[in-house]
Amino acid sequence: MRPSENCGDPRVRTWKIMVLPSLGQPDVPLEDQWELFTTLCHILHEQKRFEELERMTFSALGSKEFMRDKERAREMEFMCLLACIYNDSSYFAYNIMRELVIKNPESNRCWNLLNLIISKADDFRHNRFLLRLTHKHPDLVALGLLNGHNCLVAGTYKYSLAEYTQVFKQDKSNPIIPLMLGLTFTHMACQKFSGKKHSLVVQALAFLNTYVEMRGECQESMYNLGRAHHQLNLLPQAVHYYKLALECQPAEETPDGPRLDLSREIAFNLALIYQWKSKCSQDVHSRSEIVS
Q1: Is 97 within 8 Å of 81 (Cβ atoms)?
Q2: What pTM value is reported for the model?
Q3: What is the pLDDT of residues 154-207, one digit of tens each?
Q4: In this structure, is residue 66 part of a structural domain?
Q5: For the chain, what is the domain count?
Q6: In sequence order, what DSSP letters do the residues of 119-139 get, joined into one string?
Q7: Is 7 within a domain?
Q8: Is there a contact between 259 and 253 (Cβ–Cβ < 8 Å)?
Q9: Residue 82 belongs to what domain range?
């Protein structure tokens, strides 16, 4: 509250003269403020206080001093995005990431982050956004893949097949594209009322073998091939590829990602197959005893 101009107290006059100017000119330099802010963010992250980290970063967006510098403003925006991801605030993270994708449509890192946020989101706002963006950038491989994923999750396999096929024509060196084509044909073959199941299975296995040739024989590719045969109920082939996957060494930790070991998933799927075969053999044995 500002004191009255008619107040005769000399202490008030001193307060008006000495204190008020310091309100517009902080004594702490801007670089020290930024260092204090980033240090606090690191501490909150280390202590996993993600909700407070999100509030802190969003509050800092209101700082005119921080936002004057374009590079610092970009860093602030990215820190807000990371805070939202850590705090599972998909709603706000998507709003930030959408603007970054529009500004940087050629950046694979932006698309990977958007895919991460979409996978955790509870809504489907991204569907229309991606479709609108397709009209502006029809040749983006990452955009076509995401549209194909959305159609695959929604169960519209023919639309996802069209998206993946278009992307495969543009980029024939990416192993994930024939993998997704093979999985799409696999889902179509497993539908109850789908026609020409034999043709669908043949096409699925053809694309999956193309994926293995491009990816190489590793634990991941053998597991995916075994999992597809498992879904198609081709159990002897599934067991064969699962065993090959167990013989392969797991992928070691790299700068691009952590160590990936699928041994537990493979063992669990093998146990399901053996359990089902055991039940079938017991059923046959009990029926033979009844007949005899």
Answers
A1: yes
A2: 0.76
A3: 888 999 999 999 999 999 899 999 999 999 999 999 988 887 889 999 999 999
A4: yes
A5: 1
A6: HH-SS-HHHHHHHHHHHH-TT
A7: no
A8: yes
A9: 50-123
